[in-house]
Amino acid sequence: MPAEKPLFDIFTAVPGRYDLINRVITLGLDRRWRRRAARECLASQPRRVLDLCCGTGDLAIDLARPTRGSLEITGIDFSPPMLEIAATKAAKSGGDEISFIHGDIASLPFPDGHFDCAGISFAFRNLTYRNPLTRQYLAEIRRVLAGNGRFVIVETSQPGCRLIRKLFHLYLRGFAFPVARRLSGNRAAYHYLADSASRFFTDDEVEEMLLAAGFRRVSHRPLFFGAAAVHTAVK
Length: 235
What we know:
Elements: H1 8-13, H2 18-26, H3 29-42, E1 48-52, H4 58-67, E2 72-77, H5 80-93, E3 98-102, E4 115-121, H6 124-128, H7 134-144, E5 145-156, H8 162-184, H9 187-199, H10 203-212, E6 216-223, E7 228-234
Parallel strand pairs: 1-2, 1-4, 2-3, 4-5
Antiparallel strand pairs: 5-7, 6-7
Helix pairs in contact: 2-8, 3-4, 4-5, 8-9
């Protein structure tokens, strides 16, 4: 994967403490939110699911646990260090049915209509926040989904209440990301994450983006007073 791709350097630099930092930033709620997204992915009883920007593999593992080998799960990411951690975690959890692939979301190595569902956990903003390849990413995701295939996103959001939104941004910038920066030793990575989380789209803006990309039946469920949300869209 070329180093000039957006965010490549960041996500090859932070994997060692990535999971710990996520727990700290979200007060451990990311695990609950990710499991909710996994349930949403499984609601349509898919046969094949793609975990996009799979990172250290948590969503793929959450998909594998209740399905007991009956589901074909593929995780794809552009960070080899992340994929190494994901494969180790999956092996320890018994997720032998999960395949992890090094690849680019802008050019997915799968045929048209291959997956019944695609999920992405806390990486959608990396594909869409000030990213010049956003349209290409969304087109590729839609291409590899079968007809009526579901695209499930769990991501940070913007609380609708102005006071809660201000408190959320204060928490991100004043506590969560300074702590994460110290834990990771990577100032650039967590400056980006703080900026992208605090300036990311509202739920309505995400819905408009997905509809413009050709998805339909787009909906969302707010989490934790709107600090995050699960979005679902259908091809």
